[in-house]
Amino acid sequence: MDQKPTISRDQSRTAPKGRRPSRGLGRDVVVASICGGVVAFMVGASYAAVPFYNWFCRATGFNGTTQVATSAPASGPIARKIAVRFDSNVAPGLPWKFEPEQSEIEVNIGQVVTVFYTVTNQAARTTAGQAAYNVAPLTVGSYFQKINCFCFTEQTMAPGEKREMPVVFYVDPSIADDHENDGLNTITLSYTFYPVKDPVVKPLAASEDDKRKGNL
Hints:
By secondary structure, this protein is of the alpha+beta class. It has helices at 9-14, 23-60; strands spanning 67-68, 81-90, 96-100, 104-108, 113-121, 127-136, 144-148, 155-157, 162-171, 186-195.
């Protein structure tokens, strides 16, 4: 008689009966969900930090951020003088010529001064830019007070247009009480114009009000 093949008990126990769900897959889903939540939180926190950082810089002068004043100092100028240098830069992608009319002046601390920068659009098309600024040394940002400045406004320039832009400022007399600045002789005010890709549609800023009116 022919013998039929037999299957041992051990082989029958190890025979596949269908795949079971992997426990590792469930753990991967949980880990991915947690990581996604952490990334979303970090992105949200970074966006929230931007306005807080800007407010902090304006309030403290951190990183050379100047302060905004509405009038001249109540105490008036003092005898101590300081040199103020003016720097200008244009970021790539903006076809503008940008420079101060004076590279350096000497002023009394507390004296309200008006200086001018000139900007020329060298392109054959209308372009727009906006300036960022800081002062050096960075520690004097809280003492450099600007009454009027072009840096808060988006500037739209017609082809070939040239414009004079005033800056009205003073150095706060309280700097004389800060003994860490006793040896300070020079402050540098620096501006950089950056291109605005999607400018706000509005009339050109040039007008009779842009003409010089003397010191404010």
